[in-house]
Q: What sequence folds into this?
């Protein structure tokens, strides 16, 4: 495959060769965080849960999952990490699920440290009642300028080694749907992510994978361009356009209208925020009708507690300067309860209905 950005024609040829792509961001309900998901500690139990929950995803008609890497685990137990990755990929394939794999993200950058110290493995502590089990950062922590592991040596070289090892191993593997090279560039470090985008895309393309590459637009596209420089740069590098959107139905329709100007296949790699009126009954049929790949955030509610609101939603609600319309009576994310009953059976019926319609147009399902 080309070691440069795919043409629009190549991107559409790839996209149209697949049935409607739909699934979820996946972490087992018994994992407190991503380290819990990837580490060898508790692996047997975690994999048993993952198998049951991937089977549930397949049962309702999903055909893909999105997995996010964890450098801390790879750095501390490399061989085991790669083995766990293979187990997840094989398990997903056994349930008819492809994998979109996220190579880099800014979710938990180091703060106020002179050198990178990986977070400890073993039993993971989490805060009950908080989204992703994290206490809000203190004012002192917020004042510390975050940096990304790719910004400093020697972790930069190690991180790129992880990327090369992973992509090289799976570059010709049909079980990998797409390489999500960089999740939400600029989320923590702003325009400093631009050279990191270049570095990551160059590294991945040098491995010559047959799958497309993408980096997520997570704020907005306006007038056919990313609103922020780092997101526009992500668009200019990506083969297909992945984006995150948690707005209402009308806001989502308007954003799709803008993103169509990019003239490439669209993949919404994060959605579902009922509190902000981004729900299944409106958004899922919209993605089907617009032929937009979609991955809701979360699946079975568990230790990550992503059914709880983001801390920012609470802050906005109690800020007298903010005019917001939130519904805190609803879960934010996740489709199923811990006992595998639906959060709302009507939602699952809608998902199953449109998945069956999509499959009726797929020759391989007839």
A:
């Amino acid at each position: 495959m080309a070691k440069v950005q795919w043409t629009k024609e190549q991107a559409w040829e790839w996209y149209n060769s697949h049935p409607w792509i739909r699934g979820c961001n996946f972490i087992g309900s018994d994992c407190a965080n991503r380290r819990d998901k990837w580490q060898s500690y508790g692996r047997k139990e975690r994999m048993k849960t993952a198998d049951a929950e991937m089977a549930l995803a397949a049962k309702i008609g999903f055909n893909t999952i999105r997995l996010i890497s964890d450098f801390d685990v790879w750095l501390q137990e490399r061989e085991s990490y790669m083995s766990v990755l293979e187990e997840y990929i094989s398990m997903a394939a056994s349930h008819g699920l492809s994998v979109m794999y996220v190579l880099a993200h800014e979710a938990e950058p180091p703060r106020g440290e002179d050198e990178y110290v990986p977070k400890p493995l073993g039993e993971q502590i989490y805060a009950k009642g908080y989204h992703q089990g994290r206490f809000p950062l203190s004012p002192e922590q917020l004042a510390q300028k975050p940096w990304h592991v790719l910004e400093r040596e020697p972790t930069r070289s190690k991180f790129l080694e992880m990327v090369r090892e992973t992509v090289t191993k799976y570059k010709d593997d049909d079980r990998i749907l797409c390489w999500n090279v960089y999740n939400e560039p600029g989320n923590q470090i702003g325009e400093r992510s631009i050279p990191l985008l270049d570095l990551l895309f160059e590294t991945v393309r040098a491995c010559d994978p047959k799958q497309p590459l993408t980096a997520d637009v997570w704020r907005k596209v306006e007038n056919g361009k990313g609103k922020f420089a780092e997101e526009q740069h992500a668009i200019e590098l990506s083969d297909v356009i992945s984006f995150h959107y948690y707005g209402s139905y009308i806001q989502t329709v308007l954003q799709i209208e803008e993103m169509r100007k990019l003239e490439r296949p669209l993949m919404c790699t994060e959605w579902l925020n009922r509190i902000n009126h981004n729900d299944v009954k409106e958004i899922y049929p919209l993605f089907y009708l617009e032929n937009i790949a979609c991955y809701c955030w979360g699946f079975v509610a568990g230790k990550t507690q992503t059914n709880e609101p983001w801390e920012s939603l609470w802050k906005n609600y109690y800020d007298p300067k903010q005019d917001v319309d939130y519904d805190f009576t609803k879960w934010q994310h996740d489709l199923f309860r811990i006992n595998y009953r639906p959060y709302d059976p009507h939602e699952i019926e809608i998902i199953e209905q449109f998945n069956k319609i999509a499959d009726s147009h797929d020759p391989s399902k007839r």
